[in-house]
Amino acid sequence: MYKLDKEEKKVEYLELIYDLVFVYMVGRNNALLSHFEGGFVSAEAFVSFILCTLAIIQIWNFTTFYINMFGRNGIRDHVFLLVNMYLMYFVGESTRHDWHAYQAQYHIAWALILANIGLQYVIEMRNHKADVWNRDIAKRMAITLFLEAAIVLSSAFVPAKTGPVMSFVAIFTGIILTMTGRHRSPGGQIDFMHLTERAMLYVVFTFGEMIIVISAYFTGDGSFDPDVIYFSLMCFLIVAGLFVSYEIIYDHLIDREMDDSGMLYMIIHIFILFALSCITVSLEFMREPEVAVFPKVVFITGAIIGYYAFLLCTSRYVRKTCRLDAKFILGQTALAAVFAALMVVFRENMKVNIFITVAYVWCIVGIIYSSKKRISIEEKAQLP
């Protein structure tokens, strides 16, 4: 990959402020799954949840890649980010159960956000007249963003049943064209360390929404209630284990100084973030009597296994001394299968069920931590 020596890019204050609106969007998206039909989440609500979650994560990804490659923390960056923050409120206000009634508002605001980012690339092309590679990647990204914006905008004026289909087409068009553009053009120097830090921050504020949700487990009448203490403790341990797992991998295993475009890393994080949102909702479901037992168990089991599956996909970016082998993958698959089987068997006993979840999460924490210790020992052994 084309690379020049340059100073490490730091996460700017402006980026952190911009992220605050995504904290709001995480809560709006998760609220879509609070609509039940016969003990199950309605299919329409679940499709809306998937669509809106992917759309928001993609907007964040597009912005992050632009700032990583060309951001200068100047007046222009401030103006464009603040405009998009304003537009995001219209997207958030349209994210509701009667989503189709707000289809035009949602898609127009979404299209304007994409066009806004695309316009930044067009302006940036003027700064790279002699830099063919960077000019080429800016041109490709502008075309991708404007094309996706056009599809999204057209989704605002089609029948309600057609809108979601076109929205998914828009999202995957953006993903495919972005990956193709990055493959064909080596321009746009990527600071991988900056990308990993940005992805970590998105994970952190997704965990923030989860922490807010589990506060309901601590609700009681002020008396000593063993059930409240037990379930609140178990739920807290689940969230803590999920967080510690990511922390160990990010802080100790990921080689953040490697030379990489970061494209696959960010795509993996799309699914990590999606899984975390599903876990947040599933923890909320566990306290909802309107939701049937079986979908509760299936949802939380699938979400947690999915989280760890995609988290372990980041092994491509860990230090060479900690790459996954076939034995490790088979062991993790078997452990996940045992976890899923026990969850189904004990689905009617929530005390046992939540304990099994805690045991599985902290078992994975132990495995990841042992990898971290092994790396530390090997690195010390290599010291002169």
Note the main attributes of this structure.
single chain, mainly alpha, 2 domains, two-stranded antiparallel ribbon, 2 strands, 73% helix, globular
The coarse overall form would be: globular
Sheet with most strands: 2 strands, antiparallel
Into how many domains do the coordinates divide? 2
> Which regions are unreliable across 5 or more consecutive residues at pLDDT < 50?
1-5
Please state the CA-atom Rg, rounded to the nearest Å: 22 Å
Number of helices, counting only DSSP H or I runs of 4 residues or more: 12
Describe the model.
A hairpin with a 2-residue loop joins β1 (36-37) and β2 (40-41). The protein is 73% helix and 1% strand. α4 (103-125) runs antiparallel to α5. With 384 residues, it is mainly α. It has a two-stranded antiparallel sheet. The model is unreliable at 1-5 (pLDDT under 50). It starts with 12 loop residues before the first helix and ends with a helix. It has 2 domains: 13-188, no CATH class; 193-377, no CATH class. The longest helix is centred in the last third of the chain and has 33 residues, at 350-382.
